[in-house]
Amino acid sequence: MSDSVPELTIPSLVNQIGRTRLVPIQRLAANTRGNQIFGKLEGDNPAGSVKDRPAANMIVQAEARGTIKPGDTLLEATSGNTGIALAMVAATMGYKLKLLMPDNMTGERKSLMTAYGAELILVTEEQGMEYARDQAAAMAARGEGVVLDQFANPDNWGAHYSSTGPEIWEATQGKITHFVSSMGTTGTIMGVSRYLKEKNPDIQIIGVQPEDGSSIPGIRRWPEAYLPAIYEPARVDRIIDVNQAEAEDMARSLARVEGILSGVSSGGALLAALKMLPELDNAVMVTIVCDRGDRYLSSGLFPAN
């Protein structure tokens, strides 16, 4: 009688999202009156960004509620990372996906989405994300698919309440004093704020957005009519505006000085954290490093010389 081989129980790709590394910013934030800054490397996720978390949670929860089933077509407006993450999760879980996005996003982002099997529907840079969102809603109204709607879906911030926040609290042994995050859909900052404030109401939640006239992929200053429905201003203690050129310089410094290759929104978040240091003593700050910089190479962010 042959011995049976026990079945391996290895979590699926979707179930391995999260548990990303938290690393110290060692030189850019050195000698700052006892303050420490740590970056949470969300590029560790399977599809390479912080958006893996809400992408998986929105699809998993919708399926659990019976709103969608494998084989259905999903629709979403995206500026990049959410689309890549949704494409990966959709491929893993057996869904069709149509993504609407402005045509000025990098070629790497477009190629990554289509590599996972998603269909891209491009709008012009001038039409922007607002138009893409309207078009996704119109397609859903015509019965062409189901919109997950990251901008109004509580499963977006719920992913960060159940994973990102607890991971940060655990990694800092509850010593975190400031959380700094760029704001796009605002899911990250809303979910982490909820969790950390429950643990310690004194923790300061800092949002980062572009200055007027600055264009930073992944973060926005939304017109009032398009402000994400999940956003609750009271959950953010302070908002810091950052300049596009300075955020790009900081992204390059992160790579060259700290060995962390990231995008511009991550540079903006660190820039905001560094701006606060003269006001603080013995702070423990955590910033979100949203994604990996390799999806920005064609943009010229990291010139060859």
Automatic annotation (TrEMBL):
<dbReference type="GO" id="GO:0004124">
    <property type="term" value="F:cysteine synthase activity"/>
</dbReference>
<feature type="binding site">
    <location>
        <position position="81"/>
    </location>
    <ligand>
        <name>pyridoxal 5'-phosphate</name>
    </ligand>
</feature>
<feature type="domain" description="Tryptophan synthase beta chain-like PALP">
    <location>
        <begin position="16"/>
        <end position="291"/>
    </location>
</feature>
<dbReference type="InterPro" id="IPR001216">
    <property type="entry name" value="P-phosphate_BS"/>
</dbReference>
<feature type="modified residue" description="N6-(pyridoxal phosphate)lysine">
    <location>
        <position position="51"/>
    </location>
</feature>
<dbReference type="InterPro" id="IPR001926">
    <property type="entry name" value="TrpB-like_PALP"/>
</dbReference>
<dbReference type="InterPro" id="IPR005858">
    <property type="entry name" value="CysM"/>
</dbReference>
<keyword id="KW-0028">Amino-acid biosynthesis</keyword>
<keyword id="KW-0808">Transferase</keyword>
<comment type="pathway">
    <text>Amino-acid biosynthesis; L-cysteine biosynthesis; L-cysteine from L-serine: step 2/2.</text>
</comment>
<dbReference type="InterPro" id="IPR005856">
    <property type="entry name" value="Cys_synth"/>
</dbReference>
<dbReference type="Pfam" id="PF00291">
    <property type="entry name" value="PALP"/>
</dbReference>
<feature type="binding site">
    <location>
        <position position="265"/>
    </location>
    <ligand>
        <name>pyridoxal 5'-phosphate</name>
    </ligand>
</feature>
<protein>
    <recommendedName>
        <fullName>Cysteine synthase</fullName>
        <ecNumber>2.5.1.47</ecNumber>
    </recommendedName>
</protein>
<keyword id="KW-0663">Pyridoxal phosphate</keyword>
<feature type="binding site">
    <location>
        <begin position="184"/>
        <end position="188"/>
    </location>
    <ligand>
        <name>pyridoxal 5'-phosphate</name>
    </ligand>
</feature>
<comment type="similarity">
    <text>Belongs to the cysteine synthase/cystathionine beta-synthase family.</text>
</comment>
<dbReference type="InterPro" id="IPR036052">
    <property type="entry name" value="TrpB-like_PALP_sf"/>
</dbReference>
<keyword id="KW-0198">Cysteine biosynthesis</keyword>
<dbReference type="GO" id="GO:0006535">
    <property type="term" value="P:cysteine biosynthetic process from serine"/>
</dbReference>
<dbReference type="InterPro" id="IPR050214">
    <property type="entry name" value="Cys_Synth/Cystath_Beta-Synth"/>
</dbReference>
